[in-house]
Design a protein that fits this description.
The complex is a heterodimer of chains A (162) and B (441). Helix content of chain A is 41%, strand content 24%. In chain A, 48% of the residues are buried. Chain A is elongated and about 55 Å long. Chain A is of the alpha/beta class. With 441 residues, chain B is of the alpha+beta class. Classes of the chains: A alpha/beta (162), B alpha+beta (441). The interface between A and B is large, with 48 and 55 residues.
């Protein structure tokens, strides 16, 4: 067993969680390998007892649609040495950010829902709110790029030899 | 045991408000998307349960308006990652019905196979990663010790077979690339078919072992409710008409006429009743209504677990999913071994004004699409009703029944029991939150 593991968190905001699904599918062939290399401290999709304190890398999927999500994102940033944007929604806000492009009539139509559910005036990307270190584009994320980014941080944090 | 932020978010206010007990689960885990539950109990009676779908809205209903009809399936597949093939297929069917296009037999067969691949993968995710830890008293599949390595390998092998079946047939398991309105842009290669048949055969025994595990599981909550699903001759999720457990039958295009919309003010999703009553959609409903159409190879190997149906135990939704995995494996093998898939010249899809319905069984239950297309080929109206919206009221009522039947309400385990019960419904909050029809004209 590796002495040191990469402490990671996997977080989802407004999105379809397609990249979460790709991440879980990548485990089909890598579950035992990743168990050796990764300390998955936060992943709501996999466990109940989650902690985001002292993360090496936070992987963040989805767009930011509320102020409370923006606060949570800032807290993730504060607790993580590196933040990686995962997938189209995190990187460019789409498709959640389609509502930013609605005409006035349509905006008026959804106004009561925006108020009722305390949504922010506009949908923002992850980098609109916090500083980010990397990105894995795609809808869903491109598997090979994710594996390269993960490998980079495994080396950077001394979990794997460079 | 370390208690993290989500666990700390469980609030207890026992004794507050003159003997009332307040239970809150702020972030339900091991489900698809975001949801929470808020319950108040007084004197053993539940005063209220609020199941809140907290997934933030993305306003797809408005976003698809005035978009070219031919592009809609690509957009709406982004409603949900895990069941994206269901949205893609159902939306394609609605567009085809709106313009009067009839796809080829081969296209329909490829759709059937892509739905099977999705069912295997999606059910495997829910059963093996979300539910199995409950059976073994663990928080997570990550907490299993090395004595469970064999079981975990089997679980990922089954899931991988479903994932790869979707890749061979539809290009990708998540947001498939080959499936389009009217056709598949790529026909599976013979070598790939032979490989996937081998892989499906190699995981059959694992799928059977998991059926036994869920059959032996004694979780139980019996509900006297209507079960509703499509009923087809080959239990293939996409064809047939709708039936309920009383034998009431509805032609597929008319399904929505029998659903009653219920506004749930604290949830980002609408709820639905069926013919004015609480109903349940999903694998349990399908198994109750289609069990005589299970593939013969599946029936031969798991006859005893199948005999548990019809069932009113909502936890049997898990067992039904486990059996569906094997049925999907067996039917896929039969189709792949008995058909030659050839490049075919499909008639072009001529987009014109019209209205069409799509209906199929998504992993979590009956999925409904209605689309209107204007003379310019753009979407002018649309309505989408997803399974989790239909199960929302039932989930709340099941929680009430479970809490009132339990003597453990003053103890922390009740919160875990509530989570287990919600997980048995396999809700998908991403799907549920994105449709609210408002003033659409």
């Amino acid at each position: 067993m590796a002495d040191k593991k990469l402490k990671i968190g996997w977080f989802s905001f407004a999105c379809c969680e397609d990249s979460t699904m790709v991440w879980i599918e990548l485990m089909n062939d890598r579950f035992f390998l990743w168990k050796e290399l990764l300390d998955i401290k936060h992943a709501r999709v996999l466990k109940r007892n989650n902690s985001m304190k002292g993360l090496d890398v936070a992987f963040v999927e989805g767009a930011i649609t509320t102020e409370s999500d923006a606060r949570k994102l800032r807290s993730i940033r504060k607790n993580s040495k590196r933040v990686v944007m995962i997938g189209s929604c995190a990187i460019n806000g789409m498709p959640a950010a389609q509502r930013n492009t609605f005409d006035e009539g349509t905006k008026k139509e959804i106004e009561f829902l925006i108020k009722q559910f305390k949504q922010a005036d506009s949908v923002r990307t992850i980098k609109d709110i916090v500083q980010v270190d990397d990105e894995v584009p795609g809808c869903p994320m491109v598997e090979e790029t994710f594996l390269q980014v993960l490998d980079k941080y495994l080396k950077e944090f001394g979990v794997k030899n460079a | 045991m370390h208690r993290g932020e989500d666990a700390e978010a469980l609030e207890h206010a026992y004794g507050a408000g003159g003997g009332a007990q307040h239970i809150r689960l702020d972030n339900i885990t091991k489900i698809e998307g975001h949801g929470s539950v808020d319950i108040k109990v007084r004197g053993g009676k539940v005063e209220y349960v609020k199941l809140k779908i907290t997934e933030n809205k993305r306003f797809y209903t408005q976003a698809i308006r005035n978009k070219p009809a031919i592009s809609l399936p690509l957009m709406t597949s982004r409603v949900c990652g895990t069941c994206s093939i269901a949205h893609l297929t159902c939306c394609s069917e609605a567009v085809e019905n709106a313009v009067g296009y009839v796809p080829s037999e081969q296209t329909l067969l490829l759709r059937k196979l892509s739905l099977y691949g999705m069912m295997i993968r999606d059910h495997a995710l829910h059963l093996y990663l979300f539910c199995l830890p409950d059976i073994y008293g663990k928080d997570s599949v990550l907490d299993f010790d090395s004595s469970m390595d064999g079981m975990i390998k089997s679980a990922f092998a089954v899931k991988s077979a479903g994932n790869n079946l979707s890749k061979v047939i539809a290009g990708r398991a998540v947001h498939a690339t080959f499936a389009e309105v009217g056709k598949f842009s790529h026909i599976p290669e013979k070598g790939d078919i032979s490989n996937i048949v081998g892989q499906l055969k190699s995981v059959r025994d694992f799928a059977i072992e998991f059926i036994e595990t869920f059959y032996k599981c004694d979780f139980r909550l019996e509900r006297d409710i209507d079960f509703v699903s499509l009923v087809s001759k080959d239990y293939s999720f996409s064809r047939g008409d709708v039936e309920d457990s009383s034998g009431f039958c509805i032609i597929r295009e008319k399904y929505k006429d029998y659903l009653n919309k219920v506004v749930i003010p604290y949830s980002q999703a609408l709820g639905y009743k069926f013919r004015g009553r609480e109903h349940m959609v999903g694998a349990l409903a399908r198994m109750n209504l289609n069990r005589n159409s299970i593939h013969p190879a599946t029936r031969k190997d798991v006859a005893k677990p199948i005999s548990a149906f019809p069932s009113k135990n909502v936890f049997h939704n898990n067992l039904a999913q486990a059996i569906e995995i094997l049925h999907c494996i067996d039917h896929s093998i039969e189709i792949l071994e008995s058909h030659d898939f050839v490049a075919e010249k499909n008639d072009p899809v001529e987009i014109k004004a019209g209205e069409g319905v799509g209906l199929l069984e998504a992993p979590r239950g009956t999925l409904y699409y209605m689309l209107s297309i204007d003379k310019n080929g753009k979407a002018s109206n649309g309505n989408i009703i997803v399974p989790t919206q239909q199960n929302q009221i039932g989930m709340e009522k099941s929680i009430v029944q479970m809490v009132e039947e339990s003597d453990a309400v003053e103890h922390e385990p009740i919160e875990h029991e509530i989570e287990k019960l919600i997980r048995a419904y396999d809700p998908c909050m991403s799907c549920a939150s994105h449709f609210l029809k408002v003033n659409w004209q």
